[in-house]
Amino acid sequence: MQLTEVAFRYHRKSPWVLRDVSFTLPAGVTEVTGRNGAGKSTLLRLLAGLRSPTRGTITGRPARVGYAPERFPVDQPFTVSAYLKHMAAIRGTAEASIATWADRLRFDHLLNVKLPDLSKGSAQKVGLAQALMADPTLLILDEPFAGLDAQTRDELPALITDLADAGTTVVVSDHQRVIEAVPGITRVRIEEATLAQAITASDNAVMEGVLEVVVSVEDMEAVEAKLRAEGYEVRRPQ
Amino acid sequence: MIALARFQVSGYVRSLRVLQPLIVAFLFITMILLQKPASAKLAAGTLGDVAAFMFPVWAWASRALLDTQPDEQRSLSATAAGARTTPAFAGLIAAYTVNLALGAIVLAVPTLYAGSANVSGKAIIAGLALNALVAAAATMLGAWTSRAILPDPGISLLALLGGAAAILLLSLGPLGWLAIPMVEWLKAGHDGPTALVDALPALAAHIAIWTALVATAYILTRRTRP
């Protein structure tokens, strides 16, 4: 998927949210970072095809797009089950996928609950399920970890990388900094209305820094072992 | 497309928004339509009157149905539907289906009365066809005032009422070809069953062309605003 000189603003007189964005979306997982209001959600909506660029072009969007919004719209007169059945029908997906994703995302006990009665985290799971159940080739997740319980939050990165390994292109924005621990992801940053910086996974090796930790002599062995166990390279001063 | 239309109708019915036009329809039936017309001429005229009265109600119902989905759900439906024009078509199918059902409820009594007043079968079919066409035109007015096109609820309501009033006023004057021929069909209906049958082809062509043009413009606009 290719973005060529993409610029976007919501209204003719409003400021540009994105300007001169040229970028090839790589395979695998891409994390979009940036401060609040930088335009992350707008970029995600452009990628999902929910907005058209004011200028420039976006080409090569896969046919099956899954999009999970930052806030799932709970103000709808359906139970979770009825809602997901409708979404499965719209996507032409078998209803069996509802049970699969309800189980994987741990909300199978909420299938008969009405959408307005869901907690924020549970609603987030329904939003994820409707995006995931169509076996999307492009998956756009806007702040997917917000409000999730600890167990699902811990399991979701592995689920995302599994999908990426199976060929799905995944784009995630994440303020909770859950996805950043995942190895091999591409990171792009929106700054001053453009993709100012793109740090790829291979660049991370160059970005290593040295941190000195002062500990008592008797704790040195224990701290060294602990840091090594967590994957850090530990060197003793010569 | 049909699945998305069904989802929208289901949301509209379950949210009980459907009660609003139903209450108006039942008031219309009990206060006016239950009075039996004295002649075949009046019975045929009633079929045209229903189309004129229901025009703003159908437009209102269409707008309410299309606005039942929250904005973010419109986005989810759009990604789920795939093609960019699918949500626009699905919304129109949903709104038109609901409007046809509303029309069927309102027209049941006038159709029975027309039958018992010896209005010819041809004239009754002409009256029902006229209503089906007017319902499509009204659906389009409602669609143009829905939140996807006019996000501000105040402006949208003003556009709905103003649009219905403008269509009525335009149809009175020399710029009648710009609007749907409301005055012409009311006149044809009240001129009797034969006049209604004779006038139908021209009326139908006018309403169909108007609806097709407005629908095309709507779909082209709506596809850029999921």
Describe, in plain words, how this protein is organized in 3D.
The complex is a heterodimer of chains A (238) and B (226). With 238 residues, chain A is α/β, with parallel strands linked by helices. Chain A is 29% helix and 21% strand. Chain A contains six helices and nine strands, in the order E-E-E-H-E-E-H-H-H-E-H-E-E-E-H. Chain A has a six-stranded mixed β-sheet with strand order 5-6-7-3-8-9. A three-stranded antiparallel β-sheet of chain A has the order 2-1-4, with helices on one face. The radius of gyration of chain A is 21 Å and the shape is globular. Mean pLDDT of chain A is 88; it is low at 201-205. Chain B is mainly α and 226 residues long. Chain B has helices at 2-14, 19-33, 40-66, 71-81, 86-116, 121-144, 153-172, 182-190, 193-222. In chain B, helix 1 packs across helix 5 and helix 3 (40-66) runs antiparallel to helix 5 (86-116). Chain B is globular. The A-B interface holds A 45, 48-52, 63-67, 69, 71-73, 75-78, 82, 86-87, 89-92, 127, 130-131, 134 and B 3-4, 6-7, 10-11, 14-16, 69-73, 75-82, 84, 224, 226.
Helix-strand category of chain A: alpha/beta
Q: Number of helical runs of chain A?
A: 6
Q: Could you tell me the number of beta strands of chain B?
A: 0
Secondary-structure element order of chain A, N to C: EEEHEEHHHEHEEEH
The percent of residues in helical segments of chain B reads over 70%
* Quaternary structure classification: heterodimer
Give unreliable regions of chain A as ranges.
201-205
Estimated helix fraction of chain A: 25-40%
Low-confidence stretches of chain B: none
- How would you write the strand order of the largest sheet of chain A? 5-6-7-3-8-9
> Radius of gyration of chain B in whole Å, from Cα?
18 Å
Major β-sheet annotation of chain B: none
Largest interface: A-B, 30 and 25 residues
